[in-house]
Write a structure and sequence with these properties.
Largest sheet: 8 strands, antiparallel, barrel
Shape: globular
Number of strands: 11
CATH class: Mainly Beta
Order of helices and strands: EEEEEEEHEEEEH
CATH architecture: Beta Barrel
CATH topology: Hypothetical Protein Pfu-838710-001
Strand content: 35-45%
Distance between the termini: 43 Å
CATH superfamily: Hypothetical Protein Pfu-838710-001
Structural class: mainly beta
Number of domains: 1
Low-confidence stretches: 1-11, 15-20, 187-199
Helix content: under 10%
Radius of gyration: 17 Å
Amino acid sequence: MTLPTAGTSLHRYSAAPPSWSRWDRGLTGDVVDVLKYARVERERRYLVGSIPDGVVRVDDISDAYVEGTRLRLREVLSSDAAVRKLGHKIRLGSGPREIACTSLYLDDAEWSVLSPLPACHLHKRRHHIDRDGYSFCIDEYDDGALVAEFDDGDAAPAPLPAWLDVLADVTDDESWTGGQLAAKHDLMPSSLMPSPDGN
């Protein structure tokens, strides 16, 4: 089987500045902890060949990676709700394996202001899996690629389930990060979603 390939060039969105430090200076010059309100994600990602049994929920996700920043706008549509949020992502190492994420939830007015910002866009369907003690998700992209994500948190990485059809480990592959995929595909129009009035 031939594996699909993602884009290889770094685009205008970046999850990390050239050099990173947990401590920075705020507008007043005081030293601040930039991770004070962040949630640290320690994710492993695997290209898989199929979606296994055990799907408990499917979300429709539209992302916009704002150009020249570490910001991402996200809309999540599920069967019973719609959530819109602004995320700020900082890498804690040299690669995408460990990310500090801070999120703000947005109302319609805030979304209308932020969604037209220049950005690279990406759409996917997220399949939430809960089976045999494993809880993880598989992102299904519009080109058919399937990427399983395991968030280990503070725990040691657990073995992968034997029933998962793993094709390749892409955890440290920059071309399979969301920002790079958005740069390659950019499937959505310049405004992420319609405004609340439908226009």
